[in-house]
Each structure stands twice: as structure tokens, then as C-alpha cells.
Amino acid sequence: MSTVFLTAALALLLTIVLGLAQVFRQAGRADSLLAAILFGTTGVAVVLLLGKALGIPGAVDVALVFASLAAVLGVAFVLRGWPPDDFPEDPRP
Amino acid sequence: MIPQLLDGTLVLVVVALAWRALNDRDLFRGVIEFIALGLLLAMAWLRLRAPDLALAEAAVGSGLTGALILSALVRMRRREQAAAGQPAGVATGPWAKDRAKNFSRVLLGALSVAMLGTLAWAALSLPAKARGLTAEALARLPDSGVTNPVTAVLLNFRAYDTLLEIGVLLLAIVGVWALRRGEWPAADLRERPLLLSLLRWVLPLLAVGAGYLLWIGASAPGGAFQGGALLAGALVLALLSGLGRRLLRRGRLVRTGLTIGVLVFGVAGAVALGWTGGLLQYPTGQAGAWILVIEAAALVSIGLTLGLLYLGGRPGEK
Amino acid sequence: MSFLDFLSALLLVPALFFFVAGTVALLRFPDLYSRLHALTKADNVGLGFAVLALMLRAENGVEVFKLALIWGLVLAASSTVCFLIGQEAVRRGLKPWTRQSP
To answer: Where are the domains of chain A?
Structure first.
């Protein structure tokens, strides 16, 4: 069973790698941040799955801390960190 | 096969992200890459079966530091824009024609090299094969008052290290406050009712989470630093939304909170010195209670310090 | 492999699907609004299924409670942040993509 969880964790890690492509190419500010938020949620799932697969009981608390602070980055971006000159990237074809 | 693939992917992505975060020409993207790096590092620590480090990375490394660097970036860009409007007269390159400045730069460089040399000498003079103190530390764990070996080392066996670390945090905020005032207009919450309804239950929950991490630190991964980071996250949210502004007006309360960690830790050390004859050597059988009191005070100071650093200066309007 | 194990593994399939869908949407959707939409839906349903799968394998009730709390926190944070981003984008005058636009 732990192999199943480990495989799922690996697959999710690969989606993060795929998402990094969005950040690496010339994405807008808001889009890069969206990617970071998606990584955060995926990361919570990966931490939980890894903890279960490896039998580390503390992993749930790690995920809990990630989830508790999930709002900080996004709120800081919108209320303070979004440069006024960023934008609006043209709609992609 | 799967574990090897997982480890290989983690190693490759962590190194690639670290490189990109340092070298990206677009600083904003660099910040995003740094945040992602923190997330992957937490996974790597967990994979190495080090949940304590994963927890610290989760608490401090990703969200909080990310918001802090983002805020620094905003300030930097604003300053650049202000400078662009001014007439260019003074050379602002790294080697401006200013003898006093160049002299101090050379002096600082020489001091840094000397410091590096001293550290290298100190590191090289150590025995090549470290014996380590794991066995001794684990053997004395029952005397430490806690069952989590990491907390035992941080708050009992090497408590003076932690005392100095909390002192460093205090120095950091004193330094930032000495440099400048740092207050900016808060967001208007009336335009964002959804944010208010989120903060209404997330802020208390973060405070409860901080207490939970402090309490569980005695027996499992957790402790004052991780709990303090949750408190700091709550404070950053409160400052951004304007809910925390009333706290800032109460200067004496804030200053007391910032110093209470060092104060309680120092007093505890002095009392223990008079009682048992050893600095920070807690009386036998009571170590658990002493650690809890010290950590609770440290939690308040760490949370306030990390949260108020986000202001980027001392409270007060310009 | 017990019945619970099987069910848990089965729940991971939609979880993975939604995470992959969210990532692909982030890469392929035409404008910020549609990407926001894809992110909040796909991503949180994905985490929901993963949490359900892990709940079936939890050691005790406390762990089940923590898992539910994690999901709730992420759900609330991500929805609120995405709403804030969308609202701010509207305020800045970002036009939504339509089929007619070039």
C-alpha cells in the first residue's frame, strides 16, 4: 500500500515540474503566483502522501502548517505585492 | 524503483530551482521560484525522515519569507521609480568616486576574508571523524523534561544557543526599527468582504495552531519557532488587512511582547544559576515546566518579531 | 490488500486526475479568469479526494480531524485568494477572453 502512496506522490511531484514550465516561460505576475498557489496545494497533498508512505506521523502537522499559512502569500500579493505596471498580458491564442 | 525516481526528481528540481531563483533576471519570478524551492525542500526533509526540519521549512521557509521578499521587491521598485525621476548627478555605480566609501569597502572586504579564514581554520582543526553526541544526548533524554530529542537539545542541553538565537531576533527588529519608519496604507476591507469573512476564523485558528505546536513540541515535531511562525502569519494578514493597526498604536505592549522572550529566558537562566549552580541548568524533575514557560514567552516574541518585520520599519506614520 | 486499501487507492485516481487537469489548465487556458476558475475547482477537488483516500488509512480520529481541517483551510484560502486576484484584475481593466478576440 505504501508503494501506491509513493507513486501518487511522485506523480504529483511531476505535475509541479510541469507547472514550473509556466513560471519559467514568460508568464505574467498573476500567472506565476497562480502557479505558486497550485504548488502549495499540490505540496500539501505530496507531504501527506509521503508521510503516509514512509510512516512519519509528524507529516500531518507539516501539512497543517502549510495549509494554515496558505492564505498569507496570496493576500500579500494582491494587497501589496502586485506591481501596478504588470499587465495584462494579452490573451493567449 | 519508485523511491529512486522520487529522490532523483526531488534532487534535480531542488538544484534547478535554487539556481533559477538566484539567477533569474526577473526578480519577481525569482521570488516565486524561491517559494517553490521552500516547498520542495520541505518534501526533501520529509523524505529524509526529518519532520522537525520539514516543519520549520513549512512554517518559515515558504509563505512567510515569500511575503517578506515580495514586500521588499515592491519597496525596491518604488525607490527605483522615485530615483528615475531625479536628475542624475551622483554616480551610483558600485565603484562611485568616493574615497571614504571605497576605503570602508576595502576594509569590510578584508575583515570578511579574515573572518572566513578564521572560520576555515576552526573548521579544519576539528577532528576529521566526529564522534557525535547522539548517544549521550539520547541517554540523558529522560532527565530533559521532554520526550522529543530535538526540543531536549534546543531548550535544555544547549539552551544557551536558543537564548542567543532569540537575542539575534530581537537585534534584528531593533536594527530595522532604527533604520526607518515603515507603515503603509492598509487595504480597505469594505471593498473585500470575502477577505474579512476568511480572516474572522483563520486568525483565531492560527493562534490556536501556534499554541498546539508549542504544546506538542514536548513530544513530537513542533516548538516555539514553528508556533511563532504561525503567529507571525496571522500578524502579517492582520497588518495587510488593517485589522492589526490598533495593536500598533499600543507601543508599550508591542515592545514588551518583543522583549519578553529574551527577558523570561534570561531571568530563568539567572534563577537557575542561583538555584542549581549551572547556567540554564533546570532543577531536577521540573525541567518540563521550565521549558514550557520559556517557550511560551519565546513564542510571543518570535511571532511578534517575524510579523512586525513585514512592516519594514518601526510603526508610526511618516 | 484489504477492501479499505483498495478503496483508498481507487480514490487517488480522481485526485491525480484533478491535479493534472489543474496543471494543464494553468498552462493551456487562454486568460487569467479561466485559469483562476480551473485552479480553484480542479485543485481543491483533487486535494479533497487525496484527503478522503488518506482518511480511510488514518490511524485515529485525531488524524481524520486534522485531515479535514487541512482540506477546509486550503479550500477557504485558495477560494478567497482567487476571488481577490479576479476582483483586482477586473478593477485594473483586464478584459476576459472571448472567441471573437484575436
So the answer is: 2-81
Query: Does the distance separating the beta carbons of B39 and A13 come in below 8 Å?
Result: no
Q: Which of B52, B63, B70 sits opposite A69 (nearest CB)?
A: B63
Q: What percent of chain B has pLDDT over 90?
A: 42
* Helical spans, DSSP H, in chain B: 2-23, 27-47, 51-56, 63-85, 99-124, 134-139, 149-152, 159-179, 193-216, 224-241, 245-249, 251-276, 287-309
**Cβ contact A30–C32 (<8 Å):** yes
Query: Residue C100 domain-assigned?
Result: no
* Residue C26 resides in a domain: yes
Q: Is residue B165 part of a domain?
A: yes
Of A9, A66, A68, the CB nearest to B6: A9
Answer with the one of B45, B80, B115 that is the final residue of a domain. B80
Q: What is the DSSP letter of B142?
A: G
* Domain around B9: 1-80
Contacts of B202 in chain A (CB under 8 A): 68, 71
* CA B236 – CA A75 distance, rounded (Å): 10
A75 to B36: CB separation less than 8 angstroms, yes or no? no
Q: Touching check for C90 and chain B: CB below 8 Å?
A: no
Say yes or no: A71 contacts chain B, CB-CB below 8 A: yes
Give the gap in angstroms from C-alpha C30 to the nearest C-alpha of chain A. Answer: 5
Cβ burial, residue B75 (10 Å; 0-12/13-18/19+): middle
**SS3 labels along B10-59:** HHHHHHHHHHHHHHCCCHHHHHHHHHHHHHHHHHHHHHCCCHHHHHHHHH
B307 within a domain of the structure (yes/no): yes
Note the pTM of the prediction, 2 decimals. 0.86
pLDDT digits (tens, 9 = 90+) for C19-71: 999 999 888 888 888 888 888 877 789 999 999 999 998 888 999 999 999 99
**C-alpha distance from B233 to closest chain C C-alpha (Å):** 13
The count of CB pairs under 8 A between chains A and C is 144
